[in-house]
Design brief:
The chain is mainly alpha-helical and about 210 residues long. It has helices spanning about 5-20, 30-35, 40-55, 70-95, 100-115, 120-135, 140-160, 165-185, 185-210, and strands spanning about 25-30, 55-60, 65. Helix 4 packs antiparallel against helix 9. It is elongated and about 55 Å long. About 30% of the residues are buried.
Length: about 210
């Protein structure tokens, strides 16, 4: 079998999980996926196995495959990690006197968010890239891998939160204020915007959509 067929099936199924085409808890079958992807069942079978190993799909005792749900515990753990790493990273940017450099690096990511605001999937992806720019100050590959491994789950959580167009615009406006605060060395203001508008608000929005 052509490896590229399995890779294509894997990437397509995973993207549809992340962008909520296949919502949490939805049932998937080899036959149904093969029909949707217009391919044979073998690459789909291998893609499903890989997604199960990565935790995106769960097979019950009857071998029925479902998209892994998102629990309150998932959200709380991810945002606890983000609060610890991003808060300390922002402080480090100020301590190392890299505020001018990072204000421009973060602003570049905000511009990409603004350009993507009509496509919530791409907007959420751009949002995670902006936050990864903040933690890049650690220059720590292990931390980068942690953030990369959680990126798609953060996108899925963000999409589940159901942000309105107005809310998205408010976030973008707040980020320009954040960039200005970083550039002008106003640490308390920058930290408050990050904590209040992105970490606490993001967690609260996600938890409001999750029952279990």
């Amino acid at each position: 079998m052509d490896q590229s067929l399995m890779d294509l099936a894997y990437e397509t199924i995973k993207r549809r999980i992340v962008n909520l085409t296949y919502p949490p808890g939805s049932a998937l079958t080899e036959a149904g996926l093969a029909d949707e992807l217009q391919t044979s069942r073998m690459p789909v079978r291998l893609a499903i196995r890989r997604l199960e190993n990565e935790g995106w799909l769960i097979a019950d005792f009857r071998r029925k495959t479902r998209v892994k749900g998102i629990t309150r515990k998932d959200v709380l753990e991810i945002y606890q990690l983000r609060t610890l790493l991003e808060g300390n990273a922002l402080k480090l940017i100020f301590d190392l006197q890299k505020t001018w450099e990072y204000s421009h690096r973060i602003e570049e990511k905000v511009v990409r968010m603004k350009a993507a605001q009509q496509d919530l999937y791409e907007w959420e992806r751009a949002d995670t890239e902006m936050h990864m720019e903040i933690v890049s100050v650690y220059e720590n590959e292990r931390i980068n891998r942690i953030y990369r491994s959680n990126q798609d789950e953060l996108i899925r959580i963000g999409l589940m939160s159901g942000k309105s167009e107005r809310h998205v615009q408010e976030i973008i406006d707040g980020l320009y204020q954040f960039v200005e605060a970083v550039r002008e060395n106003r640490f308390p203001e920058a930290m408050e915007i990050l904590r209040r508008d992105h970490l606490e608000a993001g967690q609260d929005l996600a938890l409001a959509k999750i029952s279990g």
